[in-house]
Specification:
Radius of gyration of chain B: 34 Å
Oligomer: heterodimer
Distance between the termini of chain B: 77 Å
Shape of chain B: elongated
Helix content of chain A: 25-40%
CATH architecture of chain A: 3-Layer(aba) Sandwich
Number of strands of chain A: 8
Shape of chain A: globular
Number of helices of chain B: 15
Order of helices and strands of chain A: HHEHEHEHEHEEEEHH
Number of domains of chain A: 1
Structural class of chain A: alpha/beta
Number of domains of chain B: 3
Strand order of the largest sheet of chain A: 3-2-4-5-1-6-7-8
Number of helices of chain A: 8
Strand content of chain B: 25-35%
Strand content of chain A: 15-25%
CATH class of chain A: Alpha Beta
């Protein structure tokens, strides 16, 4: 019996070994765009934190960018909360994007305080799957509060902003730019668990056929073109 | 069992018209009828009688006042009478529009003499100015027949037969054909037909009449269904001091709300609305109606909504008294009895909670869901609904659709746009006031935003949406 004390303890299973320490890989929300998934640290939109999306003017595809990620969520039991969208939502676009109309709850808070309260309340409730909000811009301390709640509730929260603070504590901060020919450039400004230098160009957001045609063609012309390509 | 029947010959008029007993002649007609149904003593004195045409009545008595009977008021009147009668028996049944059945055998212990009970009932109604006629009998329909025939009696099985001898056939209010048939064979009183075997009567004369007599004589059982008075909640809080702000008042209200929830829980009910009346000393009271998105009977959800609703009130004067009132209740939904909490139900309860909270703070018109209509006009295609519409829409990839639709389309300068896709012609609504004739295009702006624009036949261009 010359086994060391350590060996005995190992044999009795009394030692906890650190090899299981690395936590399970964090899985992001699939964005639906392979190139974007690759650039993001979680392999998708942060599923348990705040994503700040900066955009200059409406019409860049900033909302449709999220549709592939929101579509599977919307077919679940819970609601998708739209807090203070700048204009009325057009239902056919949601259906085209693959979302279920049934699970969208839209709120229009009338004041700034109500807006923050609504986002927080929506995040806290277990009846919501994701929260999308249009606060204009949001101070870092407010973002921190939402970030903590989103992490606790393990829920994605998307904030659409026209002006972004450089030091906000969100999981991911991106800025959208529209290049010509319908190519959307997603510039990753900051992300947790990853480098923030990459720019990703997404060209499949708007049907490319919109941009390929420079002018209008008659049926005969487009038939001829099809022939040629064949 | 023993039944007392209460007959109110002038129930409607005596409930709704205070001067029916005065000297002004008053007559009642059905809402869209022309035959007089009821008339007061002073009208009868001038010759106006029930069953008379209204025109004839006006000729006899030009000063006649006419009341139209409204069905809902008629129901209210009989319900009010039933609530008063509830004091005298645990089983009160309605015989609309102007009669009540009361089960009285169970009251024998409390009223040793049956005449005492009848007297008390009479007094209770005459104090309210309502005339009553009553009769007691072993079977409900027997009592009804006697009371309506103006024979106020307390009969048992044998004496009922004797009473029937006094009742002529017309008391049964039969169809004239049936009555003619009976007269033809020489039957004059109800006693005469009651003696006959009921199967013969049903076969030769009238099945309904035979059944009615069977019920009245107890040969076949029949019991009226009991009336349950509508429940309502009313709570008045006398405050010891005047309150100038609502925050300290919440303490008192919280107690009252707990009582309200207890009231609901005891009856397995839920409620969606509660009226709060803040009574001031000199000014008319402030009314606040609290509505939940979905009915509830838990104090914490009511208190939260109350808190938020009261925050919005601005008091014009100090509050001296508070009243809570609720009268619309629903049955509480059945809870399933899973041993372990069911996931889906938790979500449903949580959804209700979130919706209630959002609606309470933001106002229910600022919280909505979406649904799709079949209209082709873009501005009418999306509908805002207070509750989710349970329709599944098939996914269709037709043409690109904008995410935002502007509530009103502003005029644009087309020169700064480049058209990409179109036209999509929408020509609809010519059948109503809001006709639409537009050609839609997807266009790109100089800073590469995608807009949904259209032009009208007058070649004016408008922006209608963003491809966000």
């Amino acid at each position: 019996m010359n086994k060391s004390g350590l060996e005995q303890a190992i044999n009795r299973g009394q030692i906890w070994r650190g090899r299981h320490f690395s936590s399970a890989p964090i899985k992001g929300l699939d964005t639906g765009f392979p190139s974007l998934n690759q650039a993001l640290a979680d392999g998708g939109w942060p599923a348990d934190g705040v994503t700040e999306i900066g955009y200059r003017s409406p019409g860049m595809g900033e909302v449709s960018l999220l549709f592939p990620a929101l579509a599977p969520l919307s077919h679940q039991e819970q609601w998708i909360l739209w807090v203070a969208p700048p204009y009325p939502l057009y239902a056919p676009a949601l259906i085209n994007g693959g979302l279920s109309l049934y699970n969208n709850l839209i709120t229009q808070p009338q004041s700034r305080r109500d807006l923050l309260w609504s986002i927080e309340e929506s995040l806290k409730s277990s009846s919501s799957a994701a929260v999308l909000a249009w606060p204009g811009s949001m101070r870092p301390e407010h973002v921190r509060r939402l970030q903590i709640i989103a992490a606790q509730q393990q829920k994605p929260c998307f904030l659409f902003q026209d002006r972004q603070y450089a030091n906000s504590p969100s999981s991911l901060r991106v800025r959208l730019n529209m290049l010509s020919q319908g190519v959307l450039c997603v510039e990753i400004l900051k992300q947790r668990r990853g480098w923030a230098t990459s720019k990703v160009a997404i060209d499949s957001l708007h049907p490319l056929s919109l941009f390929r045609r420079s002018s209008f063609h008659t049926e005969a012309e487009s038939d001829a073109r099809r022939e040629r390509t064949r | 069992m023993r039944w007392l029947y209460l007959y109110f010959p002038h129930l409607y008029a005596e409930t709704w018209s205070p001067d029916f007993r005065e000297t002004t002649p008053i007559a009642l007609i059905q809402e869209n009828g022309s035959v007089i149904v009821d008339a007061n003593a002073s009208a009868s004195d001038s010759g106006v009688d029930t069953g008379m045409l209204l025109n004839t009545a006006f000729c006899l008595c030009p000063t006649l006042q006419v009341l139209h009977i409204k069905p809902h008021k008629q129901t209210q009147a009989i319900h009010r009478a039933a609530q008063i009668a509830n004091r005298f028996s645990s089983w009160v049944s309605l015989d609309e529009p102007n009669g009540l059945y009361l089960e009285v055998a169970s009251m024998k212990r409390l009223y040793t003499r049956p005449s005492q009970l009848r007297q008390d009932i009479q007094q209770a109604f005459s104090a309210l100015g309502v005339t009553t006629l009553n009769a007691t009998a072993p079977h409900p329909k027997a009592a009804r027949l006697l009371a309506r025939s103006n024979l106020e009696k307390d009969v048992n099985a044998e004496s009922f037969w004797r009473a029937l001898k006094l009742l002529k056939l017309d008391r049964l209010k039969l169809e004239s054909r049936t009555e003619y048939k009976l007269r033809k064979v020489g039957l004059k009183t109800i006693y005469d037909i009651a003696k006959l075997p009921s199967c013969d009567l049903a076969y030769r004369i009238d099945a309904d009449l035979a059944l009615y007599l069977d019920h009245a004589l107890g040969r076949k059982p029949w019991r009226p269904s009991p009336f349950t008075p509508p429940s309502r909640f009313k709570k008045r809080l006398d405050l010891e001091q005047e309150f100038e702000s609502l925050q300290p008042l919440l303490f008192y209200l919280a107690k009252a709300i707990k009582e309200f929830c207890l009231f609901l829980q005891e009856r397995c009910l839920i409620s969606q609305s509660l009226e709060v009346r803040l009574i001031h000393r000199h000014q008319p009271p402030t009314l606040e109606s609290i509505r939940l998105a979905q009915g509830d009977n838990r104090p914490d959800s009511w208190l939260y909504i109350l808190n938020k609703s009261l925050e919005r009130i601005e008091l014009s004067a100090p509050v001296v008294m508070v009243e809570l009132f609720a009268s619309n209740f629903e049955e509480a939904p059945q809870q399933s009895e899973y041993l372990f909490a069911h996931f889906n139900e938790n979500i449903a309860a949580e959804k209700t909670r979130l919706l209630n909270r959002l609606a309470a703070r933001l106002g229910s018109d600022h919280v909505h869901f979406l649904s799709l209509t079949t209209d082709h006009r873009p501005e009418l295609k999306t509908q805002q609904t207070p509750l989710p519409a349970l329709v599944k829409h098939p996914r269709s990839r037709t043409s690109p659709q904008p995410v935002w639709l502007l509530p009103s389309a502003p005029l644009i300068n087309i020169e700064s746009y480049k058209l990409l896709h179109g036209p999509l012609r929408i020509d609809s609504g010519w059948w109503d006031k809001y006709a639409v004739k537009r050609d839609y295009y997807v266009a790109v702006t100089p800073n590469n935003s995608l807009h949904w624009i259209f032009h009208t036949p007058e070649k004016q261009w408008f922006r209608h949406g963003f491809f966000s």
